[in-house]
Design a protein that fits this description.
single chain, alpha+beta, Alpha-Beta Plaits, Arc Repressor Mutant, subunit A, 15 helices
Length: 366
């Protein structure tokens, strides 16, 4: 049967009370052909997440309602393999309550690292796409480091970068730090015909929110932070910093930048609008300012503060990143890709693409 997870917001959570409610669910679940497995309690956010199998959402919801008279904020189907990647298999079940192996209650929080690697190449002739985007050698080394700290790799066409899932904030930060050290040291002795450009984003998230599906919000945040991070930079939210004790060794050497909640909210609005308007050739800084509701000077100050680049450069980089993804899909010619990302002139698009990636789009072989 399909696997489902739901989310409940409960004031002043008491773990023993939640355990009792779980037992009441078990008492009536057979009536609806549902099987409740376990639950996570996050006392910091007054949130409970339940995992169950059932024929459909309605049957799962009916068990909660009959047993305890409660409704979930939302319930969503979860693919089993993705569930295991995020939640892991090493856990202790205490009357339905999920605990870590050390006995601590598992709050459901997971820490997500997104890593993008681009090879800015000066090689002539045709270039294999994988030579340019996430090249094999640095990609393999990064994955080794992620696994060293018990991170699990998520493969997804939706996110064009390496994504690692971690149980603890210390593990994700140490992995990011080790990747940074390795890439920076190798850059000085590289014998390849390209230069590595890399950046990372770190986010923290719960399995569900009241609006987003299984870790969707955390994945999106991590990916967006990675997109706007500068070369060699790790960009994380202030929320992550609240969970992580950055030791002096890392603090003195790591290229880590924190953005606060207000900046993150502005970034999400910025990315939503820009991605929605990307194909419009007349989409520019002034139109972006009007869409987001701030003056041109304010827009410049905010975008430079968050991304480290001007609004013009920000829009251009988002367009070129989308163009690179379209090249990978191998469905469009150069002129069609140019139009999809807001360039009416294919020659101008090719020149701009070459300046960023060191190769013309027509020279990339997928």
């Amino acid at each position: 049967m399909p696997l489902y997870m739901d989310i409940h917001k409960i004031n002043e959570i008491d773990i023993e009370t939640v355990k009792s409610a779980h037992l009441q669910d078990l008492a009536v679940q057979e009536k609806y052909k549902v099987k409740y497995h376990q639950f996570w309690v996050n006392e910091a956010t007054d949130t409970v997440f339940c995992l169950m199998e059932g024929p459909d959402k309605e049957s799962c919801a009916a068990v909660h309602w009959e047993a305890n008279g409660i409704k979930a904020c939302q319930i969503t189907e979860v693919e089993g393999g993705i569930y295991d990647l995020f939640m892991g298999k090493d856990r202790v079940i205490d009357h339905g309550l999920v605990r870590h192996l050390n006995g601590e209650v598992d709050s459901g929080y997971r820490f997500i690292l997104s890593l993008d690697i681009i090879a800015n190449t000066k090689a002539s002739g045709k270039i294999d796409f994988n030579y340019l985007k996430l090249p094999a050698l640095p990609k393999g080394k990064a994955i080794e480091i992620i696994k060293k700290y018990n991170g699990r790799i998520v493969s997804s066409q939706a996110f064009d970068c390496i994504t690692g899932i971690f149980i603890s904030p210390q593990a994700v930060l140490q992995a990011a730090y080790d990747i940074q050290k390795l890439f920076d040291s190798k850059a000085k002795e590289a014998s390849h015909s390209y230069n590595i450009i890399y950046n990372m984003g770190i986010s923290i998230g719960e399995p569900l929110t009241e609006k987003e599906g299984f870790f969707e919000e955390a994945l999106k945040t991590s990916h967006r932070l990675c997109q706007i991070a500068a070369h060699r930079e790790i960009l994380a939210s202030k929320y992550f910093e609240d969970f992580c004790d950055i030791n002096s060794t890392i603090e003195n050497h790591i290229h880590l930048r924190i953005i606060n909640g207000v900046e993150l909210e502005f970034l999400n609005s910025l990315m939503d609008i820009t991605n929605d308007k990307l194909a419009e050739s007349d989409f520019c800084v002034d139109k972006l300012g009007k869409e987001i509701g701030v003056s041109r000077p304010q827009l410049y100050r905010k975008i430079i503060a968050i991304t480290g680049r001007s609004p013009v450069s920000f829009i251009r980089d988002i367009r070129l990143n989308k163009a690179l993804n379209l090249v990978r899909e191998n469905k469009y010619n150069v002129s069609e890709i140019a139009l999809e990302v807001g360039y009416n002139n294919p020659s101008n698009f090719s020149r701009t693409f070459f300046r960023k990636y060191g190769v013309k789009p027509s020279k990339i072989v997928v």
